[in-house]
Write a structure and sequence with these properties.
Length: 176
């Protein structure tokens, strides 16, 4: 089948316009350096109409994660102007590790237990690393923390392929 030259030009123009729109970076949107602009992370809603956002469009308290020893590690500090996002990179700490659990919180205390829990999230299965030197080696995952409007969102992306990594709610882990 042969296309008229004008039809081919229209198709190319429409494809170019679509690519331009997909590549347009919106203010405050997460951005992965080196990622193809047409790959957008799938954002998971964590908290809608969050009280973390003040009337002045700034965070009233910090958004963070729990780290070893029950410490609150700030991801986005209180007072941050919105919209805002931050990317943290995680990788499995042991060979064969297939998933990562993070505890997302908001608050002002340095102790995680004294802050408001937004839930536990399971990231995985972690992607295999292409050309890995050891069995079970996993590709690092970029976790995107975003607050825009009055919404807190979370996403995970493979740093090598820039493809989304499954992320969902996880139950509270059993005490050790």
């Amino acid at each position: 089948m042969r296309f008229a030259p004008w039809l081919a030009a229209v198709i190319i123009t429409l494809a170019g316009a679509a690519a331009f729109l997909l590549n347009a970076r919106q203010p405050g949107s997460p951005f992965l350096p080196g990622a193809p602009a047409v790959v957008r992370p799938v954002m998971r809603l964590v908290e809608e109409d969050s009280p973390i956002v003040g009337p002045d469009g700034r965070l009233r308290e910090a958004l963070g994660i729990e780290t070893v020893g029950g410490t609150f590690n700030t991801v986005l500090p209180g007072g941050t102007t919105l919209p805002a996002s931050r990317i943290l990179t995680f990788s499995g700490k042991s060979p064969g590790q297939r998933e990562i659990r993070i505890h997302l919180l908001r608050g002002v205390s340095e102790r995680a237990a004294e802050n408001h829990s937004l839930g536990w999230y399971l990231i995985g299965p972690l992607p295999d690393t292409a050309g890995a030197t050891s069995a079970g080696e996993r590709s690092p995952v970029a976790v995107i923390f975003r607050v825009a409007g009055r919404r807190i969102e979370l996403s995970a992306v493979d740093t090598k392929t820039h493809l989304p990594v499954p992320l969902g709610p996880a139950g509270t882990p059993e005490p050790r």
